[in-house]
Amino acid sequence: MKLAKELEAKILTANSDSKLVTGQVNGEYQFRDPQLIKYLEKAIRMATTFEKFTLHHMPQE
């Protein structure tokens, strides 16, 4: 997200192999781990700076 912002992208589609992270960022799962909350909050804040942000779960092959 940081690089996309530096490149002045307005729309970002990202993929993650972590279903937990994807679900938390997309608001499908609750935050539970206090260590991860600050990182997830930062990711969500950064996501809101784009006109459109989409995060998809892509399982590892």
Instruction: Please tally the helical runs, counting DSSP H or I stretches of 4 or more residues.
Output: 3
User: Could you estimate the helical fraction of the residues in percent?
Assistant: 40-55%
Q: What is the mean pLDDT?
A: 92
Order of helices and strands: HEHHE
Roughly how many Å apart are the termini?
A: 24 Å
The gross shape turns out to be: globular
Largest sheet: 2 strands, parallel
Radius of gyration: 12 Å
Share in β-strands: 15-25%
Low-confidence segments: none
Structural class: alpha+beta
Number of strands: 2
Order of strands across the biggest sheet?
1-2
Kindly describe this structure.
It is a single chain. By secondary structure, the protein is α+β, with helices and mostly antiparallel strands. The chain has a domain at 25-50. The protein is 43% helix and 20% strand. The protein has three helices and two strands; from the N terminus they run H-E-H-H-E. Strands 1-2 form a two-stranded parallel ribbon. The longest helix has 14 residues, at 34-47. The radius of gyration is 12 Å and the shape is globular. GO terms for molecular function: nucleic acid binding; RNA-DNA hybrid ribonuclease activity. Residues 1-61 form the RNase H type-1 domain. This is RNase H type-1 domain-containing protein. Pfam families: RVT_3. InterPro entries: RNaseH-like_sf (IPR012337), RNaseH_domain (IPR002156), RNaseH_sf (IPR036397).
